[in-house]
């Protein structure tokens, strides 16, 4: 189990927001940093954390994203508006991987042509598929377009096994609890631990060291974890350094 940190960018600033409000008129912002993205990238580099993700939530974030990648080349993944046409630009800029959702899931369906084009452009070893999901009718489905639209793609053992042929890792937000510091989606954690065979990072709702211990138990230590709004470096109460120490131990 590794701690995978995050740098979320919105309107050119490092922020923590409730992701499910992104498509709405009033975005709920948990935290707006006075520091730029390079500060956090250097912190994660100093602590030897790899596989963290920089997410560009909307336009006007490329400058900050490049600052982070320059500060920690090879140590961060990048997501937000990634396509087969621009993916190599971000790998060349220092990202270890690109993260994609809406590009390969559009009009509610998985677009295999786009996914294969992405693999051809940069290789599966540089691809993270973000399968952030919500529950409907007792099943998990990928949601797209800033988490506002259900796709018809079910997150289950069979489908994850199929997608593992085309990527290096999965990043999976539990959309209904992400950013709310309300506890994790325990059933999803257990399902992912059973279903995935490549590195998979879970995000959503973890707010304490007790939650981290519960996460480790539920996942059998098999999944990686990211924490955002709950961390003290993003205005929360959970000490970042204690999370680093816990996951390192």
From TrEMBL:
Question: Which pathway is this protein assigned to?
Answer: Amino-acid biosynthesis
Q: This protein's superkingdom?
A: Bacteria
Alphabetical GO CC annotations of the entry are:
cytoplasm
Q: Does the keyword Isomerase apply?
A: yes
Biological process (GO) annotations held by this record are: L-histidine biosynthetic process; L-tryptophan biosynthetic process
For this UniProt record, give its keywords in alphabetical order, as a comma-separated list. Amino-acid biosynthesis, Histidine biosynthesis, Isomerase
Query: Matching InterPro entries, A to Z?
Result: Aldolase_TIM, His6/HISN3, His_biosynth, Isoase_HisA-like, RibuloseP-bd_barrel
The family database entries (SUPFAM superfamilies) matched by this protein are listed as: Ribulose-phoshate binding barrel
Q: Per UniProt, what is one GO molecular function of this protein? A: 1-(5-phosphoribosyl)-5-[(5-phosphoribosylamino)methylideneamino]imidazole-4-carboxamide isomerase activity
Name the Pfam families on file: His_biosynth
Provide the family line: Belongs to the HisA/HisF family.
Instruction: Write the protein's name.
Output: Phosphoribosylformimino-5-aminoimidazole carboxamide ribotide isomerase
- Source organism of this protein record: Ureibacillus terrenus
